[in-house]
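Hey L., structure's done. Input below.
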Amino acid sequence: MGAAQWHYGTKLASDTDKKGSSDLRADRVLVASADVLLRERLAGFWRLLPVDALEVESPGEAAAAVQSGTLDLVLVDQEMLGAIHVDPAKQLGDPPVVLPLPSPDSQPDPELLREACALLDARRQRQGRPGLLGCIVLSSAEAERDRTAAGLLVAALTGHCPDPVVATGRQGQIVFCNDAAARLCATSREELLGTPFASVLVVDAPATLPVSSSPGERQVRVLEGSVYCVATGAMALVEAVTATHSDAAGRLIGTVIMLRDVTAVRQLVRELTDANQRLQAVNARLEALSHTDSLTTVHNHRFFHERLRQEQAAARRYGYNVSLLMLDIDDFKTVNDTYGHVTGDRVLRAVARALETELRETDVLCRYGGEEFTVILGHTPASQVHDVAERLRRAVGRLHEVDPSVPSPVTASFGGATLRPDERHDSLIDRADGALYRAKRAGKNNVVVDDR
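Output:
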């Protein structure tokens, strides 16, 4: 971080706007340490006060900041103190007060902070400015409210949130974790603090869904994938919510990560998906059964009327011909009376198979009822209806040759008609049925087409 890159406290700005006094300018504190946790916690303390806090991690950055003449106090760890070299000839303004940090402990020492406040207060008085205590009192109510809210939030996240929550600093070290995160990693919260996040948990979440983004402030993402615990080898499916915070210059401040175990939820979703697919397959079979004649396995009477209405509408819209054949097995009652109903059922199935072998895939064969069948012929003009019916009649007549179990002779009479412009489907049925009746009266085993 460069020497002039400061983090300005929000409380001072609001207080200065209210008072309009330059006497309330922020003291400027530099925290110089290689310990990222120590830097962030000390800087966080100062930002609760009317103090600007700067964090640096190298002696060179610290020396440049000191020489700038803009600092009031420098808190520096023992290891870095001897490495900071300041050229007095290049010193701008008054040099700051330097306060060594007594130990590399990441927890700020209350006595150290009280001493630092006292040093700043004395410096302000020497400069003819109000003491630091007066500035703190100006925003004490707001600060107390924020501290109380923050304390309650941390307590709730730490002990009561069932989902693991982890906060990392600039370098990826864990600066906060709750009890659920510690349980996930099979360790204590104290052991996790300061540990690089990537060394304890590996989140593999390639699918990313941006939820909100504020450039220079915060970016929130929801990721779905898996989390792997390095210590235990355990793996779980997770939904990860990450909130990455940065300053106005785009520099990373930290990241908050919340992990939600969705293994059970995903398993339930898979089970529900499988059950839904099975249900759809059952519904498809039931739908097919509702349209199928159980004896002959061709379409039934209900499907015939539905499909004929559809063909009528399509023919009217697209301008193609639709024709209809109706056929009746000749003397079928005699077959039942002579050979029995089992043989009669065999004849019905054989007739259906013979008709299917002669029809196109687009033609629709239905059992109309009893020994009657219908054939819907799409894209078939009136000039072709008789030829189609003759081909089907001859196929029925050859049944005994194909299947000796079928008694001989088996014949059928056919009646046909072609849909007229603006004709209703029930009128087409009546005309084809009338043609079939005339074929029966003409001696059976023949074809009559209504060409009126």
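The chain has three domains: 10-149, 162-264, 301-450. Confidence is low (pLDDT under 50) at residues 1-24, 133-144, 207-216.

-- N.
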